[in-house]
Amino acid sequence: MSYVSFTNSPASPHLPAHSVAGSRAVPAGKGDRLAALLVLAASTEFLLVAVAAYSAAVIYHRLILLDSPDVAYIQESLLISTLQLLASIGLRHYSRIQTQPRHVFLWSGASGVFFVFSFFISTIFVLKLSEDYSRATVIAQAVSVLFTVLCTRAIWFSVLQPAIASGLIDARRIILIGDPSHCTQFSARASATGIRTIRSFDFPAARTDISVAARPAAVQALPDIRQLVANCRPFRADDIVILTSELDVRSALALASALSDLPVDVHVVPVGSIALMAVSRIAQFGNMVTMRIFQSPLTPFNRAIKRAFDIATAIAGLILVCPLFIIVSLAIKLDSRGPVLFRQTRHGYNNEPIRVLKFRSMTVMEDGEDFRQVTRHDPRVTRLGRFLRHTNIDELPQLFNVLVGDMSIVGPRPHPTAQNEAFAMLISSFSRRHNVKPGITGWAQVNGYRGETDALEKMQRRVEHDLYYIDNWSLLLDLKILVLTFFSRKVYWNAY
Q1: What is the pTM of this model?
Q2: How far is CA 477 from CA 267, 305, 403, 442, 443, in A?
Q3: Fewest CB atoms within 10 Å of the CB: 140, 212, 303, 337?
Q4: What's the CA gap between 305 and 199, in Å, rounded?
Q5: By three-state DSSP, how is residue 245 classified?
Q6: Where are the domains of the chain?
Q7: Phi, psi of 495 (to 5 degrees)
Q8: What average pLDDT does the segment 426-449 reach?
Q9: Burial class of 275 by CB neighbour count within 10 A (0 to 12, 13 to 18, 19+)
Q10: Cβ(34)–Cβ(40) under 8 Å?
Q11: Does 17-26+170-292 carry CATH code 3.40.50?
């Protein structure tokens, strides 16, 4: 039997090992490097939080109270910093950095700051120490610490994630057990997230003896399995993944039991379901455990936050643009014959039809099946309408759609029903855009994917950006898109 080693460790001739395409020798120092960097990141946050808390106290006292802060603020700053560190360690903020997106990493830091200051304020109140601390100073410290934590984590994320993705730092080191072709496939997927395969072995011979495999205690005593455990031990892997076929399931459970002797996480993956497992999550469903393939993009709590943001922004927007509404309405009346506002049926949340408001910018008011997309230099667009469309002013009446709950400020742009039905037949995941409310602006638009979709590829790119927004929603992302809507030149590409 052939044997290919990834390291200089000795191997047993009794168990076959095979190489995995794309794998290479991985020094243990890489995993240690990640651990060292995570410790350094947490330590940096600890120091900067202490400095930020004390600096906020010094600045407030000297500029506002015209005195120097009491020495107690040094101890208080160190306490706040320690509590923030303990919260980060206890909730495993940094240890999960390789598996979570940026906004989750930042949000966890902000949540930690909120928890720390809530705990600190409650403690000094219970212990009747609140008279020793200025309330305004504590508020200034909270703002300063929040800003420091967000900036520190954003910098560390931008440093660590590219290093993990490029392979300079290994997030996790794994051993694969299974058929060589299955190991190659799984290793390629794993390497995309910084997980490195350091060795792979064939499935032990125990699979041929089903009667024995049914008795885990007996299987653990088989020479091949004992030897496999012994061969895995020197590599000090983080995880061992058993890639099992349908015939190997019973033996895989026994093998996993034997591998429990090692200080590693043991995983079992059905080889015919690797693609399915990649998008799955184990979830608690009542008193059962299920494999959740997809989930609703927004939890009830997130929907409440997004709705509150929509209402507040829509009201503020309507107040600010009220004079503009009057000016544009008069200009439309003077420019061409027809109503000021135009209603068009489009698909909203859950593919339900909604009536979207716009300032009329064309000489026609097509709706439903009677729809033809606007093209460059389209003669149907009025002189004023060309300006309104290019500056997106024609979309402002949709603030009323936001107030009544048909739309959001940010989300996938709603398409006319005829266009939706046509592309839904060509793009398999097209209707998933409607798993959230449509928006006045969106991630696709601020990246330049708007306007005419005369080619399937253009709509595919728009859908890809919309689905990215749905899968990665956060309030920070909504704020980012809102800012880009006003300041990014890409928003005005193809606007005609």
Answers
A1: 0.58
A2: 34, 13, 21, 10, 9
A3: 337
A4: 46
A5: coil
A6: 17-26+170-292, 30-166, 300-492
A7: -95, 100
A8: 88
A9: exposed
A10: no
A11: yes
